[in-house]
Structures are given as structure tokens and as C-alpha cells.
Design brief:
Blueprint: H1 2-15, H2 23-40, H3 51-62, H4 65-115, H5 120-138, H6 141-151
């Protein structure tokens, strides 16, 4: 009875992982609960043989508990992969932005330093040119990919 109740709760909680912000935290909490359930309540063999073991196995099969638990594990793993991929895309996007912004700015400031130019107007002009180059880079295919990866996936793409 305890196993079935816990599997029912895990199934309900798994259905609500993507119901709003904080999905990574909800999935992490759910994975801890699954691990706790597995180590505490999921016993398929009490003894090597005997009536208690036969009753437990019959109860589990009557309510399809092994199949349901396997489905929960598979779905949690799928959700975890999805969230990991989404986080990796956002990190890659942030690194791409740093590259797109840093390369022109670093080049402009490096040229001024090599030339020994300390004129503040030249510094402003170099910074403005670097920002213009960054804006131009953001309009390229790579720039658009970087920006879209930072935005993440729209809410309606998660339902599929």
C-alpha cells in the first residue's frame, strides 16, 4: 500500500515538473524523492522465498508497480536531459555574447594601447566602433543563434 501511494505521488509530481519557473529545482527535488523511495520503500524481495515475498510480488504486479516505477524513472531521466540541454544552450549563448562583445572591444582597446594613444576621445571612438561591430555581429546568423539560445525555448515548445 505504501509503495502504491508513493508511486502515485511521484507520478503526479512528475506531471507538474514544467508547470512554471524553477523546473530544474522541482526536478532535482523529485529525483531526491525517487532515490529515497527506491532505497526505503522499493523492496521487491523480502526473503529468498516465502509467503511474504509472494504476497508483495503479487501486490506489485496487481497494481503494475514495477512497470509504473520504470516509467517514472525513464520520464524523470528524459526531463533531466531536457533541462540539462536547455541550461547548456543558455551557457553557450552567454559565452557567445562574451565573445561577440569582447573580441571587437578587446581589439579596439589593444590597438589604442599598442599605439600609446591616451586621448579620451579616441577611447570613446574606439569603444563606439567596437559596439557598432558587436551590433553588426549580432545580426549575423551566429549572432542570432547566440541570442536565441539565451532566450531559451518558448513555453509552448515544452509540451511536445
Amino acid at each position: 500500500m505504501i509503495q502504491r501511494t508513493h508511486i502515485d505521488r511521484l507520478t503526479e509530481d512528475l506531471a507538474h515538473v514544467f508547470t512554471g519557473p524553477g523546473e530544474a529545482h522541482r526536478l532535482s527535488t523529485l529525483e531526491r524523492r525517487i532515490a529515497h523511495f527506491r532505497s526505503t520503500y522499493w523492496r521487491q524481495h523480502l526473503t529468498t522465498h516465502g509467503t511474504a515475498n509472494d504476497l508483495l510480488i503479487a501486490y506489485q504486479h496487481q497494481y503494475r508497480l514495477p512497470d509504473r516505477f520504470t516509467e517514472i524513472l525513464a520520464e524523470a531521466a528524459d526531463h533531466n536531459r531536457f533541462i540539462q540541454t536547455q541550461e547548456n544552450q543558455q551557457i553557450s549563448g552567454a559565452l557567445g555574447i562574451l565573445t561577440i562583445l569582447g573580441l571587437p572591444l578587446g581589439t579596439a582597446l589593444g590597438i589604442l594601447q599598442v599605439l600609446g594613444d591616451e586621448n579620451p576621445w579616441h577611447l570613446i571612438a574606439a569603444t563606439t566602433a567596437a559596439l557598432a561591430a558587436t551590433a553588426a555581429l549580432l545580426t549575423t546568423r551566429y549572432g542570432c543563434l547566440v541570442l536565441s539560445s539565451l532566450r531559451g525555448r518558448p513555453q509552448n515548445d515544452r509540451d511536445g
